[in-house]
Write a structure and sequence with these properties.
The chain is mostly helical and 384 residues long. The chain has 17 helices and no strands. The protein has one domain.
Amino acid sequence: MVKQPKPRLVWFDANRVCAAMGVVLIHCTTDFSGGVFPDATAAERAVPVFLRSIAEFSGSEMFFFFSLFLMAMRIDRHRPDYAPAMREQARRLLIPFAVWTVFYAFFRLIKADAFGYAPQMWQQITDPGSWMGYFILGKSQYHMHFLPTLFMIFLFYPVMRLALRFPILGISLFATLGAMHHVQDYIWSLGLEPGLRDYLIRATKVMGYVGYGLAAFALYGLWRDGIPRGESRVIRRGAFYFAAVAYMATLPFFGTALASGAWGIREGWSFYGHFLMPLFMFALFMGGQYRDWSPRWSWLSQYTFGVYLVHPLVIDLYDVLVVSVGLSALMSPWMVVSSRFVIVLPAALLLTVGLSRWQPTAWTIGLGPAPWEWGRGSNAKREA
């Protein structure tokens, strides 16, 4: 059998799959209210906290990073004008976002009813201000912030293009994250009304995350120009080291969570260790571009966007089932976390595959033409 040449971006697909797994694991490593099992002992919290620390090697910020890398590729290949490029991104991101926003706004009532806070949830749903937060900040569910934030970061792509010409600008990520952290600390200290504070925090987050775009565009430019096999190995080794140092820097944050049973605030190098990790992990995968990656990574990667979107609904259904049948009282923290992840990850994948096979839902996870395109006879899958 003649061995087929491997696609150049299978390493990238593997990165996407690992990022999706990391996000699911992050959201599985809490108790039923999103905490760190505050009523358990430190020893009982050890497994959830440890798994959370491992999951953050490839978490939600990684989704921003590889989305911006893809943006760099499209901009470089097609050279679109600004307005058409933004219209295309709005079509790809914001319309599915609106559908999932409405879905999650009401789907959360299932868990709210089972856990006894349905009246508060109904009060939120009937408040017009809440819907502004749903559609602008993505607050209809804890993971929905990604799409509107990514679109707002895309607005700055002309700035990011500087890094294609001057890759050294990729290191400005350190500065943009530092400025974001500094200003956010000040905003939190002002005691502002929560709604206003959330909008200000999101604005600073967008400005800070443009640094991810500069780093992603810089790495794309280097990859496009070609990185020899030997230099790729050097990049991989260096990325291993820097990822290990970044993980070491986060240990005080997780140590505090282990001792106190509460997620604290990422301060100092714990902050930088967490938010620089996507850069090092992406470099790690890029440094392995010449390795013999299985084509299964590419098959799985097409569903990562869908897994990201649907996994919270699977988590909610798992939590409702476990609590409703009385199993929660019998399960230790590590059992809750491990069983949730083992069930939720494959279930979210199966649900995503099912949605992709039905035209009326495939487009909502980026795997089919939108309803207004059905009459054009296009069955091409759109890359998430």
